[in-house]
Write a structure and sequence with these properties.
By secondary structure, the protein is mostly helical. Helices cover 58% and strands 4% of the residues.
Amino acid sequence: MKASTERAQDAPGQWVDTGRGRARARLSARTRHPLAWLNSALSHRRGVQTGRSVPAGADEVLQRLAEMPLSVWTYGFDHPSVRHMGPMAQDFAAAFGLGSTDRRISVADANGVCMAAIQALHRRLVELETEVARLRSAREEL
């Protein structure tokens, strides 16, 4: 119950600190996902090293996402008619500073970026709808 009250107090689009439960999560990971934990421990993954910090909020995520280049490509093992679209992993890592490598985009990171951007867009939409309603009521009063 404590976590939900902490989240309610945070400003919309701000991150909730999950560092307090990190030691317990690492211990749990060793028993629940031993191969993934072993791979991470042996490869000494420490996160993407970029000069850019992790975004501070959803609005910053949206801004960085809007600036990130998107590409269309075909994997070497796919038939030439199979096309994919999205960011290159290096561009994603440079934009957001997320993940353990700049060679892949983690599904969790991609989903998190998309959800943060959707939240920022939702807030902007609500603000615009409120402004339109205010302008309509002001016009009707005239």
